[in-house]
Amino acid sequence: MESATIVIAMVAKFMITISFAIIYAFSAEQFPTTLRSVCIGVCGLFANIGIMVTPQIVALVQYSSSIPLVIFGVMSILGGVVVLYLPETLNESLPETSIEANNFGKDQKCWSFSVKRYRKSEVISRVAALDHHEMAPLATKVNGVTDETV
């Protein structure tokens, strides 16, 4: 039982590390530009409330060693489910005003992805339509010589 608890705790710690790596970038994308700094501050406030409550939850181990694990596990799963309802920001223009923020993601379904998939023929036609100046940045460099000069 003790080794299973250690494994679960290490997996949870790994997941927390991953979430801290992306939370601020993702959170900033959800808020309009005019309110972004205030909203990130409010998110930080709630994060600090969670930091203050954590020692009290850990103290519940005196009643049962599984209570803190259950509370943290349920809260993590609940947070993961709630995040699935946030709008996808990939390939979307981010909201600049609060009105745009209210409409942001309304056309998306829950758990939808906005990744546009192209057929091979569409990609070929798009590349063929590019003129020489648009292709210049794509020139590959080999031994200091670009393929444009060859």
From TrEMBL:
InterPro entries: MFS_dom, MFS_trans_sf. It is found in: Membrane. It comes from Priapulus caudatus. It comes from the Eukaryota. Residues 1-91 form the Major facilitator superfamily (MFS) profile domain. Gene3D superfamilies: MFS general substrate transporter like domains. It is a multi-pass membrane protein. Keywords: Membrane, Transmembrane, Transmembrane helix. This is Organic cation transporter protein-like. The keyword Membrane applies. The chain crosses the membrane at residues 6-26, 38-61, 67-86.
